[in-house]
Design brief:
The chain is globular. The termini are far apart. The protein has a single domain, classed as Nucleoside Triphosphate Pyrophosphohydrolase (Alpha-Beta Complex). A four-stranded mixed sheet has the order 4-1-7-6. A three-stranded antiparallel sheet has the order 3-2-9, covered by helices on one side. The protein has a two-stranded antiparallel sheet with strand order 5-8. The protein has 134 residues and is α+β, with helices and mostly antiparallel strands. Strand 2 and strand 3 form a beta hairpin. The structure holds 8-OXO-2'-deoxyguanosine-5'-triphosphate. The site of 8-OXO-2'-deoxyguanosine-5'-triphosphate has 17 residues, from strand 1, strand 4 and helix 2. Its cofactor is Mg(2+).
Length: 134
């Protein structure tokens, strides 16, 4: 048996005033997931979060809002045979959310009653249950 390989990612929990959670669907893929992604060489988590959010959503991270939440391991949504080791951060953003060409859809969902859509395992099994608690 081949052990599945693991990708390290950073993921953002971004909520609006109503407690809804922002999810993205990356270009050409079907699963909705947290904004974020892989770290570039030499990058730390916060730098990667800021870059990914700016690239995906066209807005800026509020530096003082960034708070580590938990680390989670899940089956990778878009890469068969891989798992993700995700560091999840609470993040507030400033500026208008304007999804880039990398993103096919960005949606706000109620974590307590997610719509019937394809959710990435990390989002479905870990992030939304955490969001419901707090
Ligand atoms: N951002 C994010 N990625 C997730 C989540 N859950 C999950 O399985 N992933 C997977 C999807 C991708 O395989 C990987 C994130 O990498 P990425 O967004 O930087 O990668 P990508 O395929 O868009 O770009 P590339 O750098 O490989 O070209 O982690 C999640 O909640 N958020």
């Amino acid at each position: 048996m081949t052990a599945s390989r693991t990708i390290k990612i950073v993921a953002a929990l971004i909520r609006d005033d109503a407690g809804r959670v922002l999810l993205v669907r990356k270009r050409g893929t079907s699963a909705f997931m947290q904004p974020g992604g892989k770290l570039d060489a030499g990058e730390d988590d916060i730098a990667a979060l800021s870059r990914e959010i700016s690239e995906e959503l066209g807005c800026l991270v509020v530096p003082a809002s960034v708070r580590p939440l938990e680390a989670f391991d899940a089956v990778a949504a878009n890469e068969p045979g891989f798992r993700v080791a995700a560091s999840l951060y609470h993040v507030d953003v400033m500026g208008a959310i304007a999804p880039s060409r990398e993103i096919d859809e960005a949606i706000w969902i109620d974590p307590a009653s997610p719509p019937d859509i394809h959710l990435a395992p990390l989002t479905r099994d870990h992030v939304l249950p955490l969001a419901v608690q707090g």
